[in-house]
Amino acid sequence: MAVSHGRDWYQTVQDESLLLLSSSELFLTDQQITFGDAQEIGVGMLFPVSTGGAVFGIGYYQLSQQKKQQELSFHQPVMVDEVLSWLSTNRNGVYLDLTVGGGGHARALLQRFSRYGKLLGMDQDDEALTACAENLRPWKNQVVLKHANFKYLADFLAEEKVEKVNGILLDLGVSSHQLNVGYRGFSFINEGPLDMRMDRRQKQGAYHVVNTYSESELRHVIWEYGEERRAGAIAKAIVRTRGRRKIDSTAALAAVVAKVVHRGHLNKSLARVFQSLRIEVNWELENLRLALQAGIDHLDPGGRMAVFSYHSLEDRLVKRFFRENEKRCTCPPEFPQCICGQKGILKILTRHPVTAGEAEVRKNPRARSAKLRVAERL
Questions:
Q1: 29 forms bridges with which residues in the sheet?
Q2: pLDDT digits over 96-153, tens only?
């Protein structure tokens, strides 16, 4: 399958099924075709189809392999049994899934609920919510989904007239779908535009960061959010390259990084650079801090918050937040009674992060980096 990006997006199609819309007809063809300027819609393309120079229909093109990946990736939640064990404490309760994605964890929770249980789901990825709505269709009367960043959870709860919830789940990882499909621009493995927006309503993506930030700003982003040792050299190379031509694709950015990083370290450096840009584009750490605080403010006593993190920056932030809100008496031990008045509002249930077992990692390699931390509201 040959795919061209940029000006000649998706130039040729072969060995794939194509759905053609011609007046009122729908039919399939496996022949190689050519088509005119394509318009991106969702995860497919609308375009005029021609043969022999004559346009005879409008086509909708969807890579069949991408479709299979989409269906699979939105239904592979990490550590489901552990989530149920730590989080599902009230079958009649109200639970808030702040990163509902394709609904994998939500579905498992709903299967545990009584008919009175309710699940509120948030996600900033419209494609994920579309998949989630279909996945949770059997429980449609117990589910409310919201297209928004999790920092707005208080607004969502107010809209639903919910003051407190019994459990909150955050799964901070990038979905397999987002990584597998090139047009979202999250991965250096699949060529696509420099995008990386979790919420595609957002105006500026990675293209803006890479092509407008100063060298010092780029160095800061790559070092702070990617912990990449060659941050300075990479930032300098980006600025030098974009002076000749804009860096407009994941492949173009990867080529710039490859010029200044030793081949033996290239994949790890690319992963760090792409992570750093994604965090910057989506304000991930700032939004996480806001969501954690708003979350415990709306957690019922005895309710639990479970957070999956996938890299050290997230995990340190969650760990520090839990510890800061568990602080108790700071009086010297020789004092006969407490005079500081400090009282914690959380009880940490997982002193060390919970990780996936070997069997799960073999089935789902991305589970390897997942760390689960759980705390209970006092």
A1: 18
A2: 999 999 999 999 999 999 999 999 999 999 999 999 999 999 999 999 999 999 999 9
Q: What distance in Å separates the CA atoms of residue 89 and residue 111, rounded to the nearest whole number?
A: 13
Paired tokens of 236: 């300098």
Q: How confident is the model at residue 75 (pLDDT cuts 50, 70, 90)?
A: low
The single-letter code of the amino acid at 92 is N
- pLDDT bin (cut points 50, 70, 90) of residue 61 is very low
The domains of the chain, with CATH numbers, are 6-62 (no CATH), 72-175+285-377 (3.40.50.150), 188-282 (1.10.150.170)
Which among 224, 236, 199, 364 is positioned nearest to 285, based on CA atoms? 224
Main-chain phi, psi angles of 47, to 5 degrees: -160, 155
| Residue 72 pLDDT exceeds 70 | no
Residues 6+ apart with CB under 8 A from 331: 338, 339, 340
Three-state secondary structure call for residue 138: helix
Task: Supply the angle between the helices 126-135 and 104-112 in degrees, to the nearest 10.
Answer: 30
DSSP H or E run through 237:
helix 231-242
Spatial contact of 51 and 33, defined as CB atoms under 8 Å apart:
yes
Q: Are 299 and 164 in contact (CB under 8 A)?
A: yes
> Which tokens hold the place of 149?
């960043």
In angstroms, rounded to a whole number, what is the distance separating the alpha carbons of residues 351 and 252? 43
Side-chain-side CA neighbours of 307 within 13 Å: the count stands at 28
Structure tokens at 126: 């419209």
- Percentage of the chain beyond pLDDT 90 is 72
pLDDT at 63 over 60: no
**CB atoms near residue 337 (< 10 Å):** 6
The mean predicted confidence, pLDDT, of the chain is 85
Q: Which two tokens stand for residue 152?
A: 């707005």
Q: Report the candidate in 288, 334, 294, 336 with the shortest Cα–Cα distance to residue 313.
A: 288
The pTM (predicted TM-score) of the whole model is 0.80
